[in-house]
Amino acid sequence: MASKKKVIVTGFEPFGEHAVNSSWVAVQELEKLGLGEAVDLYVCEVPVEYQAVQRLLPSLWEEHQPQLVVHVGVSSYATTVTLEQCGHNKGYKRKDNCSFCPASRCCMEDGPDCIHSALDMETICKRVNDSGVGVTFSVSEDAGRYLCGYTYYTSLHLGQGRSAFIHVPPLEKPYSSQELGRALQAVIQEMLKLLDEDHNQD
């Protein structure tokens, strides 16, 4: 029997106008659904704080040794479930929930400007849009310059690209928490399939 795949999925705590953060609500829905028998799913809520992310992410990667880490965040502008292809290092000047922002305005002092996910989001997007899950997916190259982008870049660095970031719209704009949970389940299963395919080609 093959050992179970470990997948970590995170959402964010409330911030700003998001008194309820749809990303964490969606992740909790996903936890109820699971990712199938072969996957050991671990979920956690990430504080909207730069320094907390710097502490939390290395321990998640080290402690769990996951095959894949998927971060989910809310975007007021999103009307689709948006798959982010890359994380950016510089330009973080918006203050977090503790009114803090990095003095360097970047994730890593000497890090590359941009780190791409090992997953081809265009392929995943097409597959999951064709699968009839009832939620529309799109791809973006810019996860923003706040905790979403900051978390993604840090995680891509720690996991050598085995990380993904998904932006979800606020609840009921247009999707319910159940629809978002099903969307996360479908897209993460596609991500795992693609990682398997890539692995088998090596």
TrEMBL record:
Any one Gene Ontology MF annotation carried by this entry is: pyroglutamyl-peptidase activity
Does the record carry Disulfide bond as a key word?
A: no
Q: Please, one GO biological process term? A: proteolysis
Q: Name one GO cellular component term.
A: cytosol
Ordered alphabetically, the record's keywords are: Cytoplasm, Hydrolase, Protease, Thiol protease
The record's listing under CDD domains reads: Peptidase_C15 (cd00501)
Identify the domain of life. Eukaryota
Has the keyword Hydrolase been applied to this entry? yes
Q: Which family does it belong to?
A: Belongs to the peptidase C15 family.
Protein known as: Pyroglutamyl-peptidase 1-like
Q: Name the species this protein comes from.
A: Xyrichtys novacula
